[in-house]
Amino acid sequence: MREGQFIKQNLERWEGFQEPTENPDEIAKRFTYLVDDLSYAKTFYPNSNTIRYINGIAANIYLSIYKNKKEKKNRLITFWKTDLPLAIRSSHRILLFGLLFFLCFVLIGVFSAAYDQNFVRAILGDGYVDMTERNIAGGDPFGVYKQENEFIMFVSIAWNNIFVTLLLFSSGIFLGIGTIYFLLKNGLMLGVFEYMFFHHHLGGQSILVIFIHGTLEISAIVIAGGAGINLGNAILFPKTYKRVQSLMFATKNSIKILISVIPVLVIAAFFEGFVTRHTEMPLWMSISILVGSASFIAWFYIIYPIIVGKQHNLKENEI
User: Do 35 and 110 sit in the same domain of this protein?
Assistant: First the structure.
């Protein structure tokens, strides 16, 4: 490539790199790109002014990295206040795809169960369906949430949900196919599960009871699924990056998102172990928990990342 063409192809990006940013991932990305460009220029255009120009930009970024290392004393606050919202914002489109996949799978579960009653048993198992039908006949349709000690139930559910979420996320490395499979599995289970209660005219009650913990739990699974799909997307569609670089940037953002859902799963497990069992609770209390949980998810994973993204001039699909 001629030097003029090389400059024309990259000049706009170099000029953009000179705009200040406080996002550490963006700083690292810029520095990595400039090192690659500098190496290319030294190889093909020795003694060129282009080398000095790129080197000057890279030097300024290096100094900003060193400066940030000194200034970042409270990384925990910075992570939750800035780094995580930026990671979520840059992954919003992929997270939306994860949500759409999951909703489609839920609908498939609902319509399949409505078409063939045996599909319910095929997904949930005969033992669970028989137990639920006995509870419904006995006037306590949600008795399954009252069978164990509260604390033991809380710990076992939290551990199981975190393990499932880690598996769902990590399987995204297989081009996202593994994550989509687990979203399919969980989506079918939710669709069939809810259909079973709606079929017995308990749909509204099931939402008021089960979604006390389900709002946070299902949201966390979908968000972790989106983070897993992000890994596969980075491999399949690296854009202008090398595949290794694309995967590296996507992995950083996705792990941040994954970390954020762990406390959400723990809170959901607490609700399931200690709160959901109280099916006799007042209607206003149940609705308050549902609305509060949904509002938190909407604020923390949609609204707040958009606000922080605008403050840092971050584009929605920027890695």
Answer: no
Same domain? 86 vs 67? no
Residue 52 region by backbone torsions, left for phi larger than 0, else alpha for psi between -120 and 50, else beta? alpha
Say if residue 140 is in the same domain as residue 94: yes
Are 69 and 85 in a shared domain? no
Chain center to CA of 213: 18
21: alpha, beta or left, given left = phi > 0 and alpha = psi -120 to 50? Answer: beta
Which of 73, 103, 131 marks a domain boundary? Answer: 73
Q: Which has the higher per-residue pLDDT, 232 or 6?
A: 232
Q: What is the mean pLDDT of residues 20-39?
A: 78
In-domain check, residue 18: yes
Q: Tell me whether residue 257 is exposed, middle or buried, using C-beta atoms within 10 angstroms of its C-beta: 0 to 12, 13 to 18, 19 or more.
A: buried
Sign of the alpha-carbon dihedral angle for 23, 29, 35, 37: negative
**Stated pTM of the model:** 0.76
Clarify whether residues 107 and 32 are in a common domain: no
Q: Which two tokens stand for residue 293?
A: 């949980």
Domain for residue 319, yes or no?
A: no
Interval 186-233: pLDDT, tens = 999 999 999 999 999 999 999 999 999 999 999 999 999 999 999 999
Q: Are residues 248 and 180 in the same domain?
A: yes
The number of folded domains in the chain is: 2
Please work out, in degrees rounded to the nearest 5, the angle formed at the alpha carbon of residue 207 by the alpha carbons of 165 and 270: 45
The C-alpha atoms of residue 224 and residue 214 are separated, in whole angstroms, by: 15
Whole domain around residue 243: which residue ranges? 81-311
Distances (CA, A) of 257 to 8, 165, 252, 299, 318: 36, 12, 9, 15, 15
User: Measured between alpha carbons, how far is residue 136 from residues 15, 198, 202 in Å?
Assistant: 66, 12, 9
Closest by CA position to 257, among listed 172, 169, 167: 169
